[in-house]
Specification:
The protein is of the alpha+beta class. It has helices at residues 2-22, 53-57, 115-118; strands at 42-49, 65-70, 75-80, 87-96, 102-110, 121-130, 133-137, 150-151, 156-165, 178-188. The radius of gyration is 35 Å and the shape is rod-shaped.
Length: 199
């Protein structure tokens, strides 16, 4: 009986030793990360008409007018009582209210409900000022505006445009009113695709 007890005691110690040999401690380490995505948000913050009322005062009355209104993403021009040769313009401020830089992708006038009047207009000149850099041009469209120009976070771009009505505008355009819109498209600054102006 003592022999059996001794054998059992030896087995207990042997099993204990084996347990101690295999009871390695372990621990898991975790790496946590968080992602806060940026925001692309460009807005029109102010517009002003450059309606040349002064030169019309020479003949004693203000014959035509250009009224410009804006929402955060659209500028609308309303021209009243336009006539052949009438010219006007606008100063438009674009602000990058987002958290990432953006670049200009397109700029285009879209005709309103009366495209025939719109087709009798032309862009005489434009300028785009971003920081200390000024771009200028004379064109009937905006295809020469420098696309991919970067507008930094909280930075403004000031866009001036001057337009006129053709001296050949036909009599059929009399007694009409029209509105048209200016749309400016932007994309994030690191978009590798070369954007094209909207036709």
């Amino acid at each position: 009986m003592k022999r059996i007890g001794l054998i059992l005691l030896v087995l207990v110690f042997a099993l204990g030793a084996m347990g101690a040999g295999y009871a390695y401690w372990s621990q898991s380490l975790n790496i946590n990360g968080s992602v806060d995505t940026g925001e692309l948000a460009v807005t029109f913050t102010s517009v002003a008409s450059d309606d040349p009322a002064l030169h019309e005062e020479i003949v004693g009355y203000d014959a035509a007018s250009t009224v410009i209104t804006n929402t955060s993403d659209t500028v609308t021009f309303t021209v009243t009582n336009a006539y052949p040769g009438y010219s006007s313009g606008a100063t438009i401020t674009v602000h990058n209210a987002g958290t990432i830089p953006v670049k200009l992708a397109s700029a285009v006038f879209n005709p309103g409900a009366n495209p025939a009047i719109f087709n009798n207009m032309k862009v005489d000149s434009w300028s785009l000022v971003i920081g200390t850099t000024t771009y200028t041009g004379t064109s009937d469209d905006f295809s020469s505006i420098p696309l991919n120009t970067v507008l930094g976070v909280a930075q403004n771009a000031v866009f001036d445009v001057n337009f006129s009505f053709l001296s050949t505008m036909p009599d059929s355009m009399e007694n009409q009113i029209t509105s048209f819109t200016l749309n400016i498209g932007v994309t994030q600054f690191n978009n590798p695709a070369t954007p094209s102006p909207v036709p």
